[in-house]
Design a protein that fits this description.
- The chain is built from 14 helices and no strands.
- It is mostly helical.
- Helix 3 packs antiparallel against helix 4, helix 3 packs across helix 11 and helix 4 crosses helix 9.
- It starts with a helix and ends in a 7-residue tail after the last helix.
Length: about 300
Amino acid sequence: MEGGVAEVARRFGPMGMILALLVNLMFALNVIAMKVVVDATAPLLSVALRMGVVFLLCAPAIRPLPGKMGWLALYGFLNGGLFLLLLNLALFMATNVGALAIAGQLSVPFSLLLGALLLGEKLNGRKIAGVLLAFAGVAALVFDPHILTEVPAVLVMASAAMTWGGATLVQRKLVGVSVMNGQAWNGLMGVVTLAPFALMFERPAIAGLAHVGWVPVAWFVFTCLGATIIGQGTLAWLLQRYPISTIMPLMLAAPVMSTVFASLYFGTPITAVMIGGGTLALIGVTIIALSPDRKEG
């Protein structure tokens, strides 16, 4: 049976690749969307509003699932609450979003490391080397004088990547949960987690919502529909059917696309160190993607 699963992973077909590309595109554009929305509102408020809209859109599909409620709640807290909060804080702190996109590549090695530590998934030597290269590539950003002020934001982004890696593990426990049901719980937990803090700490931003322009509103709609429901929903569907070591490396296109899209949209530079560090991290993730899983004895 284990061999059959591995065989399915090796035969990851064209439809799976199309879906993975769709997820990458949604996530890449979402970096721009979230930066625009965060700048126009506030970190906690923007996430709470986003997850509230997701919950309302998916609420008709919400169902209690005996035996999985704890995992659903944990997934919602990690993915709909903590991850998005850290991501928004990083975007709020940063001016060069491309640097954050490079740091976002750490989600792949974090997913593999957490899978090895918590689920006992085996990592061969090449995957370990890929993990080290990915971390080295992101660490190189510290030596870029042009983005030295972005280092705190990069560290917060790395924490977001680790949180997302943990959320991907939880998704493996949600086999059989429909995409809409899973996103409904995701949205509900995000609102429950973050809305009280937004009400306490971001009242001026709440009062200013009536004056937000149409561009942030349009990007906000995209974060709810495109990135969350389509992007995260599709990723959840893939993760329920294939191993983390098969799916997560396919997400390596997202940070590359994010860096280019953000530079074009915001007019921020892509420095030589960013190219070098991003390339090194990408090589590491590529090694992970091309390394076969270690077979169980």
